[in-house]
Design a protein that fits this description.
Order of helices and strands: EEEEEEEEEEE
Shape: elongated
Low-confidence stretches: none
Radius of gyration: 15 Å
Helix content: under 10%
Number of strands: 11
Length: 122
């Protein structure tokens, strides 16, 4: 399974962006998916997650501003970001847990996307 993110870019403070993350592969079923970000000089950290049935959780710093959703028919998860701040600048990564049939056995694995850069100017 591979994840491909898109939608990053440069935006002014107060603006909005929507990131997308699409999964591709064969014989897989996505479980919980998440968005992480790595801000300059920091380690990668959690932004929020969404379960397969749509339950979401967010870190406090993005609550009320960011919304995670998913389209299970397209194997895609979204991150809608509003009221962006310069401190939201960073590389945003998609993560997914999934089950995949391998030699007639379901294997549970995890995969990361390549990341997409979000820059918020002040």
């Amino acid at each position: 399974v591979q994840l491909v993110e898109s939608g990053g870019g440069l935006v002014q403070a107060g603006g909005s962006l929507r990131l997308s993350c699409s999964a591709s592969g064969s014989d897989f079923s996505l479980n919980t998916m998440g968005w992480y970000r790595q801000r300059p000089g920091e380690q990668r950290g959690l932004v929020g997650t969404i379960t397969s049935d749509g339950i979401t959780n967010y870190v406090n710093s993005v609550k009320g501003r960011f919304t995670i959703s998913r389209d299970n028919t397209k194997d895609t998860v979204y991150l809608q970001m509003t009221s962006l701040k310069p401190e939201d600048t960073g590389v945003y990564y998609c993560n997914a847990g999934y089950g995949q049939i391998d030699s007639d056995v379901v294997r549970y694995r995890e995969v990361w996307g390549q990341g997409t850069l979000v820059t918020v100017s002040s």
